[in-house]
Amino acid sequence: MKQTEATVGLSRSLGLWSALALVIGTVIGSGIFFKQASVLQLTGSTNLALLAWLLGGLITLADGLTLSEIGAQIPHTGGLYQYMNHIYGKFWGFMSGWMQVIVYAPAIVGSIAGYLGLLMVNFFGIGAVWKGPIALLAIVLIATLNMLQNRYGATFAIVTTICKLLPILAIVIFGLFFGHESGVGETLAGVHQSMGNFGVAVLATIFAYDGWILITNLGGEIKQPERLLPIAIILGISIIIVLYLGVTYGIFRSMGVGRIDQLGENATAYFATNAFGKWGGRLVNIGIMISIIGALNGKIMSFPRIYYAMAHEHQLPFSHQLGRLNRTTQTPVVATLTLLVLTTIMIFTVDTDRLSKLCIFVMYSFYIAAFVGVFILRRRNPGGSQLFRTPGYPFVPIFAILGTGFVVVSELFSDFTGALVSMGVIALGVPLYAYLKRYYRHEQDQDVL
């Protein structure tokens, strides 16, 4: 590995458009097409539903503003893993990375691929037995693309992001200018409105905004990351907020709340059919599938960088192999193949959707620790990053911590068993960390001898 490291490095070739496309493309999947009815049902009125989408977006924006200051100071490959490593030490860096590489990354990739497979078998009217093979084919093709030079994965991200924006913009424009059955301002009868229901609605929107943080895993491949990474994160989240509010408002402008409630997840497809004719629903389904493919590409591109970064710190088994880059493509091929193998195993053996949700409690706990890290870094280094400093400090980081804390507490109360399981997975990493520390120390001693 030493020889490889000396001659091959990650290609710092991703510009602002690539980074921006990865932020938007990784976040926007299927949620915005399906969640309007569920958020409306929880809040009881279109005005409160729009407020829930706005508040979820503002919490996410506060998260992005806060983490951007850290990213500007620690612009390295590995994102959250590197932040925890630099702020809290190697043990906590390992813990944040361990959960991601062993469970969260393959589970969430498998979950998204499985949903893509489900949509495709329904779209083409083929047997459900093809769901798994289609999911596997999708991740194999996208992983292969991302084993080429990173510009190919970035270009694919730009193309899929543009494609997924077309149906979204069509919904927004039609709703704003041609919506005739306005449900804006209506209240859904029979729904008991409470702050508890509103909180659950906000929680649902926060999950729909999730995924933007993965761009930080590519910090070592972005040009001038100290400057471009904050711009991509903040601009990307801001655009997503506008799009989410636009789609929701457009649908509310075009349909009554009773119809939206009745149709549930099918409300957007029904809207598209009414707006654009009999092919409208199918076009929306195609847009959703492209959205999922784009989100899958962003995750498969970014997650292997965590394996790679941890391997360079000797914090994974087979670190010599996982830390290698292909000499021609300058990409972590072994790390990408490892993610592919783990994902394949999970797709055919476990409920990846459930497994990815089990990780939420621990993952968001690490997010909180990272946000607290802004205060630690400012105290540790008063000069800090002169390229980006969180505006509204300390109120914006506090808002980010409270918003993310709301997710953690909600998960603890709603799925206590799942929270315990995720903490158990984390605990399994403690003996592995101790073993790897001894193993690689012994190996270094042998090299000296």
UniProtKB/TrEMBL annotation:
Chief place of localization: membrane
GO annotation, cellular component aspect: membrane
Native species: Levilactobacillus spicheri DSM 15429
Name under which the protein is recorded: Amino acid transporter
InterPro entries: AA/rel_permease1, AminoAcid_Transporter
Protein location: Membrane
Molecular function terms from GO: L-amino acid transmembrane transporter activity
Keyword RNA-binding assigned: no
UniProt KW keywords: Membrane, Transmembrane, Transmembrane helix
Keyword Transmembrane helix: yes
Superkingdom, taxonomy of origin: Bacteria
Pfam families: AA_permease_2
Annotated membrane topology: Multi-pass membrane protein
Segments crossing the lipid bilayer: 14-34, 46-70, 91-116, 128-148, 155-178, 198-216, 228-252, 286-308, 329-349, 355-378, 390-410, 416-436
